[in-house]
Fold:
Amino acid sequence: MSDSAEKPVYRHPEKRNKPDNPIKRKPAWIRVKAPVSKEYKSTANIVRENKVVTVCEEAACPNIGTCWAKKHASFMIMGEICTRACAFCNVSTGKPGALDPFEPYRVADSVETLGLEHVVITSVDRDDLEDGGAAHFAETIRAIRKRSPGTTIEILTPDFKGKDSALEIVVDAKPDVFNHNLETVPRLYQNIRPGARYFTSLNLLYRVKQMDPSIFTKSGLMVGLGEEKIEVHQMMDDYRAADVDFLTIGQYLQPTPKHAAVDRFVTPEEFEAYSTMARSKGFLMVSASPLTRSSYLAGDDFRRLREAREAHLAKLSAAKPAE
Structure:
């Protein structure tokens, strides 16, 4: 997509016809500076030259200036149009076009050019495809491995409609981190994530661990949508029952008046309390702050995640009785 081209907007009637929700003024702890650095512009040029799509732009991530200044771009594959209409998401919704068979290799070229040590690959939902795009994810992973064998790969996937056959295709490609976001508490799914099912998403993460325990699993949720603290704590327990390694918690920010309204802005102190609670429940890694996003500082977090697993395994080994 060129700099001058306008992003195509397709919205399901149910979202387009909803009354506007006024956008609340953000508190001081959430405001970020506009990206202007030379490094940011360099990353933008590489993205444009390789004709790839980033979730940084499509989802209007508030951290884009920080990440792109460090040449950390998160790629979004399978087009710019999603088949679902989640009430929180800024990605366009409608009928997608055919998959681009060359996209995995353009993404691999971009990863090599940027010199990424760790890359995040996500996608739109593609419910129009039999495998939900699983084979396209796998081909992208393989292309990156071939061009940049030292790069660790994190994927953030759709739910593939709960199909084990699709999940196996992706797991067999051996990403280092398998991320799938549950986004919000079960009570709010009907309004916030109507095309998904809470336990389908939870089971997806559980099945990844059953298929390949060596893959790190990761998931995130947004707060500030009207959830109660006890519901967030229950979600943590559900995650741990599914053996999820890494939990991210961030503030929901309303993209446009047509999206779900922010119920409230959660304070940094409350995020710290969530982090403490999650760590006490046994997650290897927790990232909880107003600006936390799934792919924000993902490379640094991956290194800490790997170190945490090594420390955990060493602790278990030391506690094992000698034979």
In short: The chain has one domain: 38-318. Strands lie at 75-77, 81-82, 92-93, 118-123, 152-156, 177-179, 216-223, 246-251, 285-288.
